[in-house]
Amino acid sequence: MWRRLIYHPEVNYALRQTLVLCLPVAIGLIVGQLQYGLLFSLVPACCNIAGLDTPHKRFFKRLIIGGTLFAGSSLAVQLLLAQGAPLPLVLTALALILGVTAEISPLHARLLPASLIAAIFTLSLAGSMPVWQPMLLYATGTLWYGLFNWFWFWLWREQPLRESLSLLYRQLGDYCEAKYSLLTQHADPENALPPLLARQQKTVDLITQCYQQLYMLSEKKHHNYKRLRWMFQMALDLQEHISVSLHQPEEVQKLVEQSHAEAVIRWNAQTIATRLRVMADDILYHRYSGRFTMEKQIGALEKIARQNPENPVGQFCAWHFSRIARVLKTLRPLYPRDLMADRQRRLPLWSALKSYLSLKSPALRTSARLSVMLSIASLAGNVLHLPKPYWILMTIMFVTQNGYGATRVRILHRTLGTLVGLMIAGATLHFKVPDGFTLCAMLAITLLSYLILRKNYGWAMIGFTVTAVYTLQLINLNGEQFILPRMIDTALGCLIAFGGMVWLWPQWQSGLLRQNAHAALEADQDALRLILSDDPQAPTLAYHRMRVNQAHNTLFNSLNQAMQEPGFNTRYLADMKLWVTHSQFIVEHINAMTTLAREHNMLTPDLAERYLQSCEIGIQRCQQRLNSEGAGSTGDANILEAPDAAPQGPLSTMERHLERIIGHLNTMHTISSVAWRQRPHHGIWLNRTLSGEKR
User: Cα–Cα distance between 477 and 467 in angstroms, integer?
Assistant: First the structure.
């Protein structure tokens, strides 16, 4: 029982965050310095946003950089304000200077909002204590945060990676069960495919997250994570075989009518899904998985395949399910390989600075957007006669996310959570509860809020707002005066953040659809060249297969976010949704062909070359359609002539996959030709070349 409790992801996370906040408060209460203990507990908020609790091979180096930036931002704000510099100018300078961190790497990019929040916290403290005290507070607070998290991760070793792997195995089980529960509905892809695409997206996202966590480990720790690396490679094999599809709905319907194949296939899928969920719990709770066999299920499926030799569906399912069963039985990957190389960009400071100074830099746009929003908030504070509009500024920083959709949802949750929390705190302040009971209640509320934070941000904000009001009550005894102004500040901060995301250099995902579609086609082409080469190696095949899946996942994420963005052509997005659907079909064919190529189920060199030329012509037609500048430049005519069709006759499994890929590419070219006429005629859509291409 204790194992299931302490290793539960939400419980483990809530305990860690609550202890790192509350232990300084407890120490301050014991030594008679409660106010400093409460102020000390503000620093972990900056550290959380900066991602300083991420297990990393440079953990303490990142800790030193973070603490230095926090203390430096605090010093800069105090000195500049003391010299009479206007607050909007101070915040603009800080945002533009710290924005270069986003060019170094995505992980370094989190230092920008964290450092700005440290500066805003300092704004609330300036004038009430010496200049050195906030700096010391950030330096010692960051050190405490880092040492506590280092000890916690040493105590609960491997826990972050175990949580991600557990979620991955559970998602694979759900994906497998959902896919084969819709077996007879695949003839209607418009209704059957969207839920499967969503599950495939979550699976690839979790695989990418596991890759990132493994990249962050130092080389000497890889030996300690050997078993978890095996489990991750097993998950890659399972995803490869679960995500394949033959895409012959007529043959599926025929086999279902001629036999009891539907019940047998579902039996196999449900057995696999149940086993994957058991393994997910075993990974999370540090247990060894028991024995497993699927001989009866696989035997029944092979019997149907023998009884219907002319139908490829039975043989297809039997072969892939047998490979999945082998992985689950042996608890080993199908073949040994190294991890895919880390493709995440990391630039030295000087190179990052040169890239940052370009007007095309997304990091520069982000920091400029933040600087303008913070300046507007500062000016609004002056209009409202607020000498320190820190709550408006902090609201902007906490609700601003990477995309429009995420920011909109965060604004809604934060606004409602803050308003409800302020009303609750205002009602309870009248009871004049003793400080000891107040601190105990704050501890319980903090723990409960962190338990639900990652899944219910709005509800958690209610608890955090209540604790913030009582913190001010304990420090300055002005909690009641705090409530009404903070309601106004929260609403104003959310409005400024929303306006900034919409009007200040927005990076609409709809504008990136063309670029991401081009990248997905490029990944498809590289994978097909490898699969149809003379001697493809298993590790290289696995690398390119995962690149194809990740490229399509990026495209699918862009489409989902674009469909939530305001003022865009819905007909164009509907056509692009159909284009992405056919792209997903190609991904599933490449997944299936990868397994065939690894088993050396190859074509003759002449036939492979002919199919490769046909696929490349289809991909180039789609790419040129994406690159073309107008409806009349290429029209609907073929840009390149396809070679003569392959000779008629019985087709192998590899040939069937290639024929269907060519068919999907032709359909995608037709769709993009129709969709292009409905594209926007402004901004990035007027460019004749894609981002990153040379003219």
Answer: 14
The Cα–Cα gap between 356 and 276 comes to 45
60-76 residue pLDDT tens? 898 999 999 999 999 99
| Pick from 595, 51, 544: nearest CA to 341 | 544
Please write the tens of the pLDDT for every residue from 388-426. 788 899 999 988 887 777 888 888 898 899 889 988 988
What per-residue string of b and e applies to 505-523 under the rule 16 or more CB within 10 Å gives b? ebebbbbbbbbbbbbbbeb
Rounded to 10 degrees, what is the CA torsion of 353, 357, 358, 360?
A: 90
Most confidently predicted of 98-107, 337-346, 632-641: 98-107
How buried is residue 528: exposed, middle or buried, by Cβ count under 10 Å (0-12/13-18/19+)?
buried
Query: Can you say whether residue 418 is alpha, beta or left, with left for phi > 0 and alpha for psi between -120 and 50 degrees?
Result: alpha
pTM, two decimals, is 0.86
Give the CA distances from residue 511 to residues 60, 189, 497, 575, in Å, rounded to whole numbers and listed in that order: 39, 26, 21, 15
Task: Please name each of the domains of the chain with its CATH number.
Answer: 159-330 (1.20.58), 510-644+651-686 (1.20.58)
Residue 473: which residues within 8 A CB-CB, separation 6 or more? 429, 438, 479, 480, 482
